[in-house]
Amino acid sequence: MWKKSKASDQTGIRQTAGNTEGGPQDDKGIRKKSKVPGVMITQFLEELPEGSTTPDFSRKPIAITIQEGKCAIFRAIVVGNPMPTVTWTRAKGEMVFNPATCKQNYNESSHEHTLEFPKVAPEDADTYKCFATNDYGRAICTVLLNVIEVGFSKTKELQKTYGDEVPDFLKKKLRKRPTEGAQENKAITPEEKVWEILLKADKKDYERICAEYGITNFRGMLKKLNAMKKEQNEDIVEFFTPSNALKHFDSEEDLSLDSELELRESKMFLYKDGSMVAFANDECDELTHSLKQVAKKKTFSMSCQDADVEGIGLFAMDFKAPDVDFVVKIQETKAEERQDALFTCVLSAPLQEIQWFGKNAPLTNGEKFDISVSEDKLIHKLIVRDCLPLDAGIYTAVAGIKSCNAWLVVEADKDGSSKGKKVARKNTLAGAGNDEDLLKIAREQQERYEKELQENLETAKKNQAERDAAEEAARLEAQAARDAKAEKKKSESKRRKSSAGARKASVAAVVEDLSEDNQEVGESSLFMECVEVEVKETETVEGRSHAEEPAERRNSGNKDIHLKVKVKDAAVGYHHGEETRQQKSGAKLVKKENTNNPKVKKADREDTSVGSDHSQEAQHHQSEERPGRRQRPAKESLADRGHAGVGRDVREEKCDKSGPTKNAPSEKVVSSKDKEDEDKMSDVHDGDGGDDDDDDVAPTGGEDASESDEDVEEPAVEKRVRVRQGPLIQETLIDPGVHFLIGLSDCKAIIGEEAELTCKLSSEDCEGVWYKDGEEMVCSEGVTFTKEGSFHKLTIHRATDDDAGKYKFEADGRKTEALIVVEDPPRFDPEELKTFIEPVRVKKGHKAIFKLPFLGREPIKVQWYLEGEELSDEANIKIETSDGCTRLLLIKLQRKDSGEVKLKLKNEYGTVEAFSEITVLDKPTPPMGPLEIVEASSSAIEIKWRPPKDSGGCKIGNYILERQQVGRNTWKKVGPIGPEAKYRDLDIDHGRRYCYRIRVETEMGTSELMETEDIQAGTKAYPGPPSPPKVVSAFKDCINLSWSPPANTGGTSVLGYNLEKRKQGSNLWGQVNPPEEMIKGKAFAVKDVVEGMEYEFRLSAINNSGAGEFSTPSDFVFARDPKKPPGKVLDLKVTDSNYTTLSLSWTKPKDIEGVQDEAKGYFVEIRPAENTDWNRCSSTVLTTNYYTVKGMKSMAMYWGRVIAVNDGGEGEPRELDNYVLAMPPPVRPRFTDAKIKSFMVVRAGNSARFSMNFEASPWPEVTWLKDGVPVTKKVTISNAEGTSQLLIPSAERSDSGIYTVIIKNIVGQESFSIEIRVTNEPKPPGPVEIEENVLGTVTVSWTASADEKRDDRLHYMVTKRDSSKRTWHTVADHIFNNKFTACNIMPGREYQFRVYAKNDMGCSKPTESPKWLIATKKERFTVNIVESKACNLECPPKFLVPLKMHSAPQGYECYMSCALKGDPTPHVTWLRDNVSLNTNTNYYISNTCGVCSLLILRVGPKDTGEYKVVAENPIGRAECATKLTVKE
User: Fold this and answer.
1) Does pLDDT of 1103 surpass 60?
2) Which of 290, 521, 550, 880 could form a disulfide with 887 if both were Cys (CB 3.0 to 4.6 A apart)?
3) What is the pTM of this model?
4) Phi and psi of 393, rounded to 5°?
5) Rounded to the nearest 5°, which phi and psi values hold at 170?
6) Per-residue DSSP letters for 1060-1117?
7) CA–CA separation, 695 vs 682, rounded Å?
8) DSSP state, 440?
9) Are the CB atoms for 1084 and 1031 separated by under 8 Å?
10) Distance of CA 512 to the CA centre of its chain
11) Residue 905: which of 860, 852, 857 has the closest Cα?
């Protein structure tokens, strides 16, 4: 039996307590490191069975950095016995394997485990762990996947703004990764249409739909359909929060359920048992059901006092999100710091309000944000006030289920002078555009919306008319069928007449009782539709059992007569109290009958058409209560009809003013029989129970009653006859009557100001009544009602707190409601505000007072600001606030205190601001330089300067000047010269130098002085040299020149120029222009030239002081007519080329007189073969006949040409005969390495790398072969210019072989082979045996090593030790068999042999033989053993190798170790920042033979700090510390 390990090192045991996700759950284990770096192995057992090993990675996965959309594959090869199982996990979330996104594979041929991402996405970037697990251990390694995103990522930008909590409505905007085979914007398929039909169908229709569309897997269909409905409900929950307060309720209580709707503007629909029912928008007496909305909360209520049992059912609420979209979306806005920013959008349909979000937070009206909407509810605006850098981000507008977003970019203030200071508030608005364009778009959208609405209404009316016509046609067809059926049955009625007489009398009595009940009920009698008579033997009579009846009645075969009353409209409540009269319309009234076979005889139509004043009055009452709704015809009272027949449908022919109604009566039949019994009663009731139901009707009355009576056959046990009341009427649509086109809207009013409520009716002739909080309003002094056409307006002239409340306008039974909220925000009196905003001017050191009364509801927060900075009580600032007034006192003001003063008031209703200006007056600063000398002539000095930087808040009155002549000590006051910053001094002496002092004078005083430099009057200040003359054109009799004026004019303007010329080879310059006539312009034509002579020119500028220096001479020019352009260059060819340059040479073109002149230079031009435009290679003219073109693309195709030029212009270009490839001349491939290894040994698990340097032209094709076949994908080949590299990551023994590189191009090819042997230290040989065959020799044999078959270069080495020497020495090496004969074996000595397995990598561990001894007889001797003294080896802990300083990059592993000694074995504790790490599962700690180590697999910023090792034993204690620095 094997035992679990009991580790002796406590530190190591603690580290294995924390299990890593994906591995087995182990409580204990032994941690050890793999030979492959970065792999950690946990051994579950202390001693492993023979031949069993723990898992390990012979090739671990390598980190990948890859572009989005590419294929990423992690490869790993594991070893172990038994074969480990491989699993993968990731740090963020769980692994989801899908063939389209992530899949795990295993290749049996290469024993390679792979994790593949076919199209890697940014969300796949993570740290992945690979686990290899078997029964004896687990190996773990981590690998990193980095994804380079391509283009703009909406997900990333939203996460930057919102963090992890991205709103649901923004998450739906993100593009989801399509599943396998999915396509975007795919048109609806027939299969999707089937599922859409199934979602909307009833369960009973599933089988029919499946059969129609060929769906055979019915169970699978139900499963998928339930999943789709669940997903649909989850989507609804995002906008609609259903009620969770469902409960049972008593019939005398009202039912009320609450729910929340995220989108207030959504339309709500109420369904009962799958059919839509009408409901009121508020609780009222008109309808049983009401749905009231307050903000997002929806309250569904049903008045159970007025509802019958039939009104109870399964209620459901549906909603429809507003069909609205953005016509103009919000745009990106760039705002400067402290500036306001505006976002504007235009909707496709009016919406009261939309939601605004900024940085994952909803925005509301306030000090920071201003949200507004236009009157037509189409234009919505958001203003972000006082933008700061932290306000930058994504802002979103949400309308219904649509949204749009845009960036707000806040640019920091670029004014360098304001660094360190708070930026001043700006009053401009960023993002403001042309409002007229928005209004135009809104108007167009409003017209389009109204047009679509009108078209939809017309379409609905048309469809309704078509449905009504179809129903009318069906009704007439059914009526004709029933009439034919009635004629057929007339012949049978005479036979039944005798048996119906007795039943008729009993039924008439029951009907009479029912009529009395109907009169008590009141309005409910108006809706009685039919009476059913049921004959049963064992029913109770009004609550009494059959046993309680008199004996004579029981014995006479009594049968119960059951009348079932059907109510036409279950939604209309009754007004009177008995519970029996509030039951559903199918309530039973029971009467006893003493006849065995009762029959019912139908009444005459004329007898049943008697009217009732009660019914007419009730009908009038109903029309008053519900104007514009469908009116129900008045019913006759059964009491007034006497012995009218029961069982025939009778309808009153007259109707009210609004026309006949179209309400289908609901039939509920209470019977113990099934549908077969109803079919047998087809002669007394129809099949559908709708408005079109019309049972057999035959005119009966008076004397002919006996002929028209119909006898009805009934079953032996039960018989039912239905009696229908009221005249038969034709159903048509009802005019909806007066209704609201525009309802009331909630209004916010300010105390003391006017408030208005306006609505619009569909009729101008209708009057209405105003209500406040349920009480009728009348006109008063402060409240007026006005009517302008169909518009009705309520005006409150001066709103007060008492005016707040709920207002209702009711007209012709229709009503609309709105709230008036009276607010009392802070505000100012206009007159006081006008005084406040006037600027305040005070002198330096004085005080200033700002006082402003205000109104508004307390508490009011008062804030004073100066230049945007809030003020508080200080030594020089006093703020006083009392009831309705605030005061700011500024003491000892300085000039820097000037600026904008702002008063801000805020309470719960709003914010108001008032602005003023304060200017502190002070002396001005000195004028600013530099001084500009406009003129410094012998007669005048004119100077200019800049105004002072700060005028002290006052207007400049004068500049005061003083003048001093250089050399004197006195200053002459020139006097005030006015407010202009310039002065012209005419009182000067020629050649003298003057200095000036300038001061600024204002009403606050005189500034400090500014002293100028010395200015000389009339000095000979000559101008500088002009630019060299430029030859514009040259002819044989004229040369045209031009030039630019000098940069230094000598302080005065340039008057003219002198021009001189000189012939080639002469030293004499001659003036061109006459001495007394200077050249005024900047160009001159020199005509005094000799044809064929070569000239150069120079000129000087002249000012008041005289002529200045001459310019640099111009280029030499011949006095001759212009030259002819040169011809084409000759012998153009390519002299050299490589991948980036091209060298050309050519010969000078010939000089042909009169045709082409000599070339003076050249231009070289090239163009790519795919382009038609020529590019000039140099901007200057080339004087040589060769040139090297640089910057070419490797292996690209180019055309080249050369153009010769001279003074006559450019000649014709000469092009190359053929295109040129940017490549060097052809070179046969050859290897350039001086020494190349032909054999390489690589340890298994390490990477094998081999590089070859070569030269070849053109670029060669490089091929690597292994044993004559191309290398596998596992081998990485990297080719660069002049080199090729082979890389085998995590090499295995199977990678051994002869690798050949072949370099081939069009010139030739070259190859080289290298043998790469991948191996490892061999496993030791098996047991060693010794056998003596010949005296003095022994044969040593052993079992072959396990690696012998896999390694053909494996051999053995034998070492020997005898008892005389006690040292091991090699006796044989390079043994390729499993035997060795050792000689010179001496008797009497004890021998022992060791056998090693060796290969190219090294030696294995030795296998020792048993000891061999040939016994000999020896003399006995005695040894005196000296008694040894006990040695005490105890010592305190001591560090032999201390910890070193570590600096690791973030994300990499870090390994710390130290060595110590001590006896007894010390206990080791690792600390980080004095916190123990021994129990922290994020660190792998081991202590083996005094070597303590700590491993951090992935270093992060949190791992930075001081690490300390503390070793303790009973004798002493030692510490060693180091620091870890994490690089980003």
Assistant:
1) yes
2) 880
3) 0.32
4) 155, -165
5) -85, -30
6) EEEETT----EESS-TTS-B-SSEEEE----TT-EEEEEEEEEETTEEEEEPPP---E
7) 9
8) H
9) no
10) 75
11) 860
Pairing, β 267-272 against β 315-320? antiparallel
The Cα–Cα gap between 290 and 301 comes to 5
State the amino acid at position 349 in one-letter form: A
DSSP, residue by residue, 527-596 = GEEEEEEEEESS--BTTB-GGGS-HHHHHTT-EEEEEEEEES-TTSPP-S--GGGGS-TT-EEEEEE--S
What integer pLDDT is reported at residue 933 of this predicted model?
A: 86
**Diameter over CA atoms, the chain:** 169
**Burial (0-12, 13-18, 19+ Cβ within 10 Å), 664:** middle
For residues 1256-1272, average pLDDT:
89
* CB of 1307 closer than 8 Å to CB of 1261: no
Spatial contact of 528 and 639, defined as CB atoms under 8 Å apart? no
Per the structure block, which two tokens stand in for 1005?
């005083």
Q: CB neighbours (10 Å) of residue 616?
A: 14
Output the six-digit token pair for 784.
Answer: 């007026």
Residue 754 three-state SS: coil
Closest-CA residue to 1471 (of 1443, 1498, 1497, 1452): 1443
Q: Is 1015 exposed, middle or buried (0-12, 13-18, 19+ CB in 10 A)?
A: buried
DSSP designation for 1385: P
Q: What is the DSSP string of 443-457?
A: HHHHHHHHHHHHHHH
Helix (H) or strand (E) holding 1475: strand 1475-1476
CB atoms within 10 A of CB 1309: 15
Decide if 929 contacts 945 (C-beta within 8 A).
yes
- Of 639, 640, 644, nearest to 513 (Cα)? 639
Convert the pLDDT of each residue in 1141-1165 to its tens digit: 999 999 999 888 878 888 889 999 9
pLDDT digits (tens, 9 = 90+) for 157-191: 556 555 555 565 555 555 454 444 333 334 444 66
Torsion, Cα 416 417 421 424, to 10 degrees, reads -90
More confident residue, 435 or 651: 435
Closest CA to 1481 of 42, 78, 135: 42
Lowest mean pLDDT, pick from 445-449, 789-793, 1023-1027: 445-449
CB neighbour class for 1173 (10 Å; exposed up to 12, middle 13-18, buried from 19): exposed
User: What whole-number distance in Å separates Cα of residue 554 and Cα of residue 548?
Assistant: 9
- Amino acid occupying residue 991: G
DSSP per residue over 292-313, as a string?
EEETTEEEEEE-TTT--GGG-S
Residue with tokens 């009320």: 256
Show the tokens assigned to 203: 């369960």
Token duo for residue 610: 């008697």
Complete edge-to-edge strand list for the sheet that includes strand 899-907: 840-843, 910-921, 899-907, 861-866, 869-870
Distance CA 627, CA 635 (A): 19
Q: Is the dihedral of CA 1215, 1217, 1223, 1226 positive or negative?
A: negative
What is the average per-residue pLDDT within 394-409? 89
Residue with tokens 């004798």: 1515
3-state helix/strand/coil string of 340-374: EEEEEEEECCCCCCCEEEECCEECCCCCCEEEEEC
Q: Of 1448, 1366, 1356, 1364, which is closest to residue 1394 (Cα–Cα)?
A: 1356
DSSP one-letter code for 673: S
Asked whether the beta carbons of 1357 and 1433 are under 8 A apart, the reply is no
How confident is the model over 570-605, as pLDDT tens digits? 333 333 333 333 333 333 333 333 333 433 333 333
Nearest to residue 1468, comparing CAs of 12, 33, 18, 46? 12
Joined together, the tokens standing for residue 606 give 């004329």
Mean pLDDT confidence for 349-363: 88
